[in-house]
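Severity: low
Component: inverse-folding endpoint
Summary: output formatting inconsistent between runs
Steps to reproduce: submit the following structure tokens with default settings.
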């Protein structure tokens, strides 16, 4: 979290919400830090004199101090490596997240308008899907860098 905040602030001042959004954008939504992790880290970085807030106490923008700029420069390789790690495979993660979102919407619809028998059938389908997902992991060797396994056929 520290390196992410420092590297984003190296690009320009930002408030806490802007930092959370920049990190999520930079990782294509793969990492969405919460206020509970961002704001305490901001306070710690202020205490260490690596960043400083603007005078606007309601929604301060933070900027690097000279000491913070020196730390970002000294740790640039580690910071770059951390961003590469954080963005590894985000498109696939985003695709899965989108599919789960549409599945959840369909599940809500079944609960709202389905009969008891339809709800029971939907529960069975979801249990089978969970088993199938674990089966995918159990049967496939780990992917090598850059290779993506072909999607499996799944009955609708």
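Observed output (run 2 of 3):
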């Amino acid at each position: 979290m520290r390196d992410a905040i420092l590297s984003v602030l190296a690009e320009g001042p930002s408030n806490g919400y802007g930092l959370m959004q920049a990190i999520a954008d930079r990782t294509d939504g793969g990492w969405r830090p919460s206020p509970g992790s961002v704001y305490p880290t901001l306070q710690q970085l202020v205490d260490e004199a690596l960043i400083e807030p603007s005078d606007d106490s309601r929604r301060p923008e933070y900027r690097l101090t000279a000491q913070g700029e020196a730390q970002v420069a000294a740790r640039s390789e580690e910071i770059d490596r951390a961003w590469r790690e954080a963005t590894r495979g985000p498109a696939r993660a985003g695709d899965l997240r989108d599919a789960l979102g549409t599945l959840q919407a369909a599940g809500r619809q079944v609960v709202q308008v389905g009969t008891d028998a339809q709800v029971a059938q939907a529960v069975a389908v979801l249990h089978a899907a969970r088993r199938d997902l674990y089966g995918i992991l159990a049967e496939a060797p780990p992917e090598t860098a850059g290779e993506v396994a072909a999607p499996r056929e799944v009955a609708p």
